[in-house]
Amino acid sequence: MMRPFRIFLFEGILLASLAFQSCAQQKGNELTLGTYTAPREAYQAIVPLFQKYWRAKTGHTLNVKQSYLGSGAQARAIVGGFEADVAALSLESDIDVIKKAGLITGEWKNNEYKGMVTRSIVVLAVRAGNPKNIRDWQDIAKPGVEILTPNPKSSGGAMWNILAIYGAVMRGKVAGYEPSPEGARRLLKEVFKNVTVFDKGARESIINFEKGIGDVLITYESEVLVGQKSGQTYEIVMPQSTILIENPLAVVDGYAGPHGALEAAQGFRDFLWSPEAQTAFAQVGFRPVNSEVSARFSEKFPTPFDLWGVDFIGSWDKIIPEFFGPEGIFTAVMEEIQGEK
Question: Which one of 180, 250, 259, 337 is most buried, by most CB atoms within 10 A?
Fold first, then answer.
């Protein structure tokens, strides 16, 4: 089943910039959301709920524009001049890129949720019946397994995937791999030798998987649940050890202020933590951060045997250069793979 297309969903940075920054913008009556690709269906459901809420609260009709790109690409677009009033991204480090550019002036993590609006986990999607008998991370390292995953140069989801593999080995939860940096690098290398397509974002990866490309997809749990809800027959394999994904959101006051949209942007941010919005997130496959809503959906979201947070590996300001910088762990792994071809 094809995924639905909605108007106002722009994939190109240039198109988004031209459309969203036109002189037709009405101050205070328009809000621009820049987000990553995975939560598209969630925001399509939540935006109308917020518009109804905002109209009842203020008496104003609010036009909400939405742009979807890979998390890293979206952060760079916002820094480069795409004037989003709200940024909802995959990684804390992508929000920090915008903050370091001076476009977020407040403390965006200063609430009980530390600025995070959704959670997920890294899982494996496999074909119906699991013909390759994939049960855990070590199984996707076998020769002949074709893997899809996004590119970490543009996708936050890709970075979560890489950290999930590395951390699972370091925690001693992957059979056949020594819980050491050397063991973790070996698994990364063997897995990424099997990657046949590096897409620009998580949504592009799962669309290609739905077209019949590949045997297994490394992705957000939410992406698989969205696909299954739309009629796809692929299955979830939950590794025994995987990472807890936490997705941040911040008001980009450097743009929202001049737009006259600061109040609406702050209202939208706060609305996303409400039971109504958190329920909408859960219904499309995201793990809620609101504890009340999380308790109601506990059966939908089982806990892996070994679930851990990014802090096990380090802070994002350390992880980005250590893994993805010019001399980073993953950069070196990919150079080794390329050198052997």
Answer: 250
